[in-house]
Description:
The protein is mostly helical. Among the domains are: 1-34, no CATH class; 179-375, no CATH class; 396-495, no CATH class. Helices cover 61% and strands 2% of the residues. It has helices at residues 21-35, 39-60, 72-83, 98-111, 113-144, 151-198, 200-209, 213-225, 244-256, 261-276, 279-286, 299-324, 335-348, 364-375, 396-400, 404-418, 420-425, 432-443, 477-491; strands at residues 3-6, 9-12. The protein has a two-stranded antiparallel sheet. Helix 3 packs parallel to helix 19 (477-491) and helix 14 (364-375) packs parallel to helix 18. The longest helix is centred in the middle third of the chain and has 48 residues, at 151-198. The radius of gyration is 26 Å and the shape is globular. The chain starts with a strand and ends in a 14-residue tail after the last helix. It is a multi-pass membrane protein.
Amino acid sequence: MSSIICFGRKLEHPCSNSHSKPTCFNGSRFHSLVFKANPFWVQLSYFIVLSLLGFGALSMSKPRTDSFRPENIDVFFTSVSAATVSSMSTVEMEVFSNTQLMIMTVLMLVGGEVFTSMLGLQLARSRFKRHDSISHEIESDTISHEKPRTDLETHIISSSNSKSLKYKAKTYLGYVVLGYLLVVHVVGSGLVSMYVSMVPSARKILKAKGIKIQTFSVFTIVSTFANCGFVPTNENMIVFKKNSGLLLMLIPQVLLGNTLYPACLRATIWVLNRMTKKVEFNYILKNYKEMGYGHLLSGGRCCLLAATVLGFVLVQFILFCSMEWNSAGLDGLSLYQKLAGSLFEVVNSRHAGESIVDLSGISSAVLVLFVVMMYLPPYTSFMPSKYEEKEEGGSILECVVLCHLSYLAIFIILICITERHKVKEDPLNFNVLNITIEVISAYGNVGLSTGYSCKRRLKGEMGCADTWAGFVGRWSNEGKFILIIVMFFGRLKSFTLKSGKAWKL
């Protein structure tokens, strides 16, 4: 019989009762599977199941026209791309019907980092509640049998109150994240819908393409906040490059859902603490590490992160404007439209992937900078030594695995092998730089692509037609499958960012 010794008394374990053995056994077994499993495998299973469900739903739904139906590999690729918020595309977006666009909206919403982190926070809170319920019951039972409180009993009561406050703080944090998610989506989709309804040029574009305003608004906001980069139009945001107001509306969505999320979340909690004077909010700010929420950072780290993000944007903005100001992509725009469009492009270059220009026409210097930005994790920041956190020793597996650059090099080599015939016959399209951009974009879950141009073919071929699909749309099925693996790897890269440190150069 299991028991716990406390104050010299033998306390029965809650599961020691013979009538409750089956329930406790099954419950503990279930919790062991859910809570004690490696988070990497839990999230990998989550995204695989989500992708398969999305594939089934997209396959059962009819496309917009019966004249063209995507192949199964392209449908699955699209489902994975939406679930991992990568926005890599093998077919044009206007192929999908309104129902399929709504399915993709759900995939992007539940696959976004803020939503999945909220689920993780809920699981952590449930685990804390379950772990604390047994100890709290034992402590209460022990103290109730002893009239005078000793110092040890007082310490137990204090510890119990501290755990209760910690649990309430986790609950409040969950509500804040949920509220953050809802407010940004509701306000954002409302503003976009209002803008499109009031601006004739934007409304005319959607009407000509047969896209509903409400579908466009919700789809675009969910995609932008999740930093997916899908847009219901074939041309992405190129058709809206003169609608500077719409572009400026979407820029905050990109930052709020990714690179500046920790800073904005902490600022939100700080404001709520000042307004409500709730002790739970104050506890969250002072004990951010104990919350078990990786996106909750210290005030100093948030300031450094915000400064780094804005610094990267400024560097990209200066280079992009200096190199592309008179390019064909910005031709016909006014000074204000060029500034707004350039800012939109560089903000999206890191993780969102929405674009107002054709990437194939951008200068090589800007492309290389974009590749670097796509490779960097979202919370990359310049951090002086006093802010650095001590690293704990890793497992044997973590010591032998390679760094991310090594894996990306392997993926690029494999794709060059699978596409070797096209590399030889069509070198201007299938060059190593274009393949590298596609792989890094998939790894960073960005979605930027150089596309494919029939005009760059050395050998003329009848029936070759330019489309707005990504460059990967021209790859073989083997190449597409490798890029699917890259998208999964990129979506879960946070678990292996510190890998490869055992290799000394």
